[in-house]
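Can you give me the bound-state structure? Components:
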Amino acid sequence: MTSDITPTRMIAYRLILVVAILTVWEFASGRLVAEFFISKPSAIFAAFERLIVSGNLFFHAGVTASEAFAGFAIGGTAGIVAGVLLGRSAFLAELLQPFILAFYSLPKIALAPLFVLWLGIGMWMKVVLTATVVFFLVFLNTFTGVRSVSRELVTIVRLMGANERHVLGKIVLPSAISWVFAGLRISVPYALIGAIVGELIAANRGLGFVLANASGQFDTAGVFAALIAIMILAFTLNSLVRLAERRLMPWRTHEASREVTV
Amino acid sequence: MTGASLIAFRGVGKTFIVGDRAVEAVRGIDLDVMRGEFVTLVGPSGCGKSTLLNMTAGLFAPSVGTVRYDGGAVAGVNLRTGYMTQSDHLLPWRTVAANIQVPLEIQGRPRGEMHDKVAGLMELVGLAGFERSYPSQLSGGMRKRAALARLLAYDPETLLLDEPFAALDAQLRLNMQIELLRLSRQLNKTVLFVTHDLDEAAALCDRCVVFSGRPGTVRAVIDSPLPRDRDLLRLRHDSRYVELAAALWDMIMPMLAQTAGEGP
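Here's the bound-state model for the whole set.
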């Protein structure tokens, strides 16, 4: 359901809302609530500006982004491959089901200390943590997608002489791809959770480190500035997945734009 | 038409288990289809006509009796048949042209040849100009035509057609019938053609198999008096065709009256 307000007006209303909240925040800070706890917008912007000017923002955001991205790519690829494999092989799926369920129920973040022991506090520990989190989300979605492929379509191409490779490439993967993307999309915030929690636990760089460092120095404005940077990073990653989705599933756009008939 | 039959049904019966109920679809079917023959199957709804096509395609085995194809029992998917079912089964993620191209890709044809063949088929089924449309953007009739073009693209020896033209308008249906008849004669295709349209059944067939319903049994097999090469456009003026269609009507009408009271 959309309201009948024009897009430009909606943007204007949103701007008004943001300005109102920032004004109240700025006013309340130090008067109604101690500035120590909530800082104030002007101080946060100043801290954010310092992060940009010093070049620290791009350095730390770059570190976090590469960790999240590498983990996302590794975990996503492994999840897709495992999902397709188990989706197509009833034997493997049945064999591994209890183990997968056991690992799935485990909060993946709890593995972080183990990864520190194995890999140290460098970048790889965050990458592996992120990949583990992303893997399960993408795996489960891909598995479901592969399992829900229309058996009629598979039969139709089998009659055309298709072998397992044809069935996989022409039917199973394209038909599961919307599930895969659903998995990838919900993985984006989790990829960042993996990278940032990893940095909070043990790191000397990355946005999670900036966050922990600012909080350690009781620099509330710095904490908020780091949070803004993380938000921008998450937004960017999300947009990239959406872009890839539109490029790889053009028929979806057509279906969405079609007039509805019954 | 001499020699051994291409498709042979011997005492074929098929029972499906639907929930906790056994539903007998067909019983005691004995039927021979010769190579190059165009056989139409008519009868009331739910009398197991599609079941026979499914068994010929090897999608499932009969519960009793045997289905033989070119001398051998059908076991597993029968790659010498092409099947066009009631629903079109196009791939929603491919454009119309790419859908028609699927069987050619499976056969590993070179790109240029595929392109030419797809263009020719699009023209044939009247879809030129819709190459880049997705199935969801087409009408039901257009999707049927695309599915027919895909079937013709892989050129199977036997065509199993389950009401292929039901969704088409009269003009287009006639064009498709003419093309189908021309192609099947020219390439000596064997065709099993299920239809509810008795005029269509009479116009196309070398032989017409009339089923009576539930469980489906063969009521009659009628040889067409029409020549193999016939002009569908002038058929209305052919007394042999008119008589054949009338004979089919006389046979089917009492069955329709019988089943009218039953639900599906």
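A couple of observations. Chain A touches chain B through 22 residues (CB under 8 Å). The mean pLDDT of chain A is 87.
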